[in-house]
C-alpha cells in the first residue's frame, strides 16, 4: 500500500551488484539524481571514478558522501580503498559527488574565517594581503605553508608601516 512499481529498460542488477543513485553537490532536490549499477565489491575510489565518468566530470578533487533520508549530506566516505559492502552501502542508497579533496588520514580540514578589526575611529581596516591579520597585541601573523606538505603553520612577523 502506498508503494510504486516502475519498469526500467535494461538488465536488472545481479545479487552482487548495487543499484545506486548519485547527485552532484550538497543542495540536491528529489528527482535530480542519476543512476548507476556497480559491484558491491568495488572500492570507494573506483565507484567515484565511475560516477565522475558517467556525469561527465573530470579531475581528482572530488569525494563521496552518503545522503540521508531527509536529503542531507552525511559523513564523507573517507576510506577510499574500502568496498561499498564494507561501508554498508545498499541498493537504493544515494551518494553525493562533492567537490573538494578530503584531507589525508590523520589531518583535519578546519574552516577559517577572516576577521577584520575595527580601528579606533570606528572604520573597518582594509586588508589587501589576505594572508595577514593583525592580532590584539599589534603583531602581524602571516600564514606560511611548507612546500610539499599539506599543513599550514603560522609565524609572527613585525608590524608594517601603513
- The stretches of 5 or more residues where confidence is low (pLDDT under 50) are 127-162
Distance between the termini: 73 Å
Arrangement of strands in the largest sheet: 2-1-5-3-4
Work out the helicity level. Answer: under 10%
The total strand number stands at 8
Structural class by secondary-structure content: mainly beta
Question: Main sheet, how many strands, which sense, barrel?
Answer: 5 strands, mixed
What is the ordering of alpha helices and beta strands? EEHEEEEEE
Number of helices: 1
From the alpha carbons, calculate the radius of gyration and give it in angstroms.
23 Å
- How much beta, percentage-wise? 25-35%
Average residue pLDDT: 77
Which term fits the overall shape?
elongated
Pfam families: UBL_USP40
InterPro entries: UBL_USP40
Organism: Callithrix jacchus
Protein name: Ubiquitin specific peptidase 40
Write the layout of secondary structure elements.
Elements: E1 17-24, E2 34-39, H1 44-55, E3 62-67, E4 73-76, E5 94-99, E6 132-134, E7 140-145, E8 152-157
Parallel strand pairs: 1-5
Antiparallel strand pairs: 1-2, 3-4, 3-5, 6-7, 7-8
Q: What brief labels describe this structure?
A:
162 residues, mainly beta, five-stranded mixed beta sheet, three-stranded antiparallel beta sheet, 1 helix, 7% helix, disordered C terminus
Amino acid at each position: 500500500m502506498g508503494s510504486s512499481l516502475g519498469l526500467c529498460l535494461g538488465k536488472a542488477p545481479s545479487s552482487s551488484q548495487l543499484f545506486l543513485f548519485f547527485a552532484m553537490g550538497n543542495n540536491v532536490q528529489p528527482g535530480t539524481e542519476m543512476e548507476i549499477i556497480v559491484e558491491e565489491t568495488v572500492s570507494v575510489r573506483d565507484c567515484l571514478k565511475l560516477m565522475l565518468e558517467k556525469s561527465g566530470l573530470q579531475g581528482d578533487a572530488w569525494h563521496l558522501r552518503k545522503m540521508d533520508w531527509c536529503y542531507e549530506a552525511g559523513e564523507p566516505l573517507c576510506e577510499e580503498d574500502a568496498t561499498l559492502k564494507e561501508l554498508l552501502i545498499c541498493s537504493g542508497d544515494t551518494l553525493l559527488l562533492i567537490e573538494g579533496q578530503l584531507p589525508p588520514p590523520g589531518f583535519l580540514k578546519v574552516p577559517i574565517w577572516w576577521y577584520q578589526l575595527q580601528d579606533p575611529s570606528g572604520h573597518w581596516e582594509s586588508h589587501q594581503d589576505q594572508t595577514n591579520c593583525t592580532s590584539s597585541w599589534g603583531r602581524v601573523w602571516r600564514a606560511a605553508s611548507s612546500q610539499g606538505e599539506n599543513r599550514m603553520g603560522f609565524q609572527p612577523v613585525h608590524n608594517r608601516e601603513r
